[in-house]
Amino acid sequence: MRYKLLALDIDGTLLNSKSELTPRTKEAILRAKERGIIVVLATGRRLAKTLPFVDDLGLSAPVVIHNGAVIYDIASQQTIVQRGIELAIARDIVDKLDSLDINYVVYTGESAGERVVAPIGTWDEEEDLIASYLIESAEFLEHVDLVAPPARISTIDRVPKIEALFELLSRDYAEAMNALVFETELNVWRGIEIIPANCSKGQGLAEVAARLGVGQGEVVAIGDNVNDIEMIAWAGLGIAMDNGSQLLKEQAKKIAPSYDEDGVAQVIEEFLL
């Protein structure tokens, strides 16, 4: 099989533990591009936090952002797919988060997820959780008033609060949204990414591949976390990073070396070069 498309998660996959794109990984990606391989970034990040890597690597293919809620076409500089959490449901979830005093941010629908807002009085923690775990900054408002279906709602708080929240979301909104739980290194904090129902990186990648005329079996996808499960399960060759989630590894066809061993570069060198 000659692979034609390489899909890469960013954090924990493309970048190492210091959030660096290493010279070896960059060189391997550039060499793959020279061979005609299409490189697609598929990430939970929003566009503004993804474009620096698009520019650094000279990529031209559409990017899958917000865990599949948005697909942005680099060539035309336009959003070509946008999904949102149903507005009434999103408003109800925000009301619940307010009443439970849980830290959250909303990636607003009217901005295709580029405007990030949070209510004043939240995130008053000893750590800068938004910067540390969401790699974000937020605009703080007296009240978060949703006017369009949001691309994503992200929460990070103490583990017991998030466990209780996940139970509530699973019970009351299972058909209306997709809740992705992520853990932090010391397990003091835990988070949930709330995205539209039937939405995933896998779905987004399948749509991009179809637009580019690439078959499922011609795709290699690499990721590290639970939000990559659908993507690596869909790809012809789905690969999990050694530093990644055990749940993801169980779905992978291959385990790559860790992000601090240039795992992405090693995969490219073995399978694409």
- The multimeric state of the shown protein is single chain
What share of residues are in beta strands?
15-25%
By CATH, the architecture of the largest domain is named 3-Layer(aba) Sandwich
Strand order of the largest sheet: 8-7-6-9-11-10
Q: Which consecutive residue ranges, at least 5 long each, have pLDDT under 50?
A: none
Compute the CA-based radius of gyration: 18 Å
Task: Tell me the domain tally.
Answer: 2
Helix share bin:
25-40%
* Text of the CATH class of the largest domain: Alpha Beta
CATH topology of the largest domain: Rossmann fold
The total of helices stands at 10
Strand-pairing-aware structural class: alpha/beta
Q: How far apart lie the N and C ends?
A: 13 Å
**Sheet having the most strands:** 6 strands, mixed
In words, what does this structure look like?
The chain has helices at 10-14, 23-34, 51-57, 87-100, 129-134, 159-172, 201-212, 229-234, 246-251, 263-272; strands at residues 5-8, 38-41, 63-65, 70-73, 78-82, 104-107, 116-119, 139-141, 152-158, 177-183, 189-196, 219-223, 237-241, 254-256. The chain is of the alpha/beta class and 273 residues long. Strands 8-7-6-9-11-10 form a 6-stranded mixed sheet. Strands 2-1-12-13-14 form a 5-stranded parallel sheet, with helices on both faces. Strands 3-4-5 form a 3-stranded antiparallel sheet, with helices on one face. Strand 10 (177-183) and strand 11 form a beta hairpin. Helix 2 (23-34) packs parallel to helix 10. It is globular.
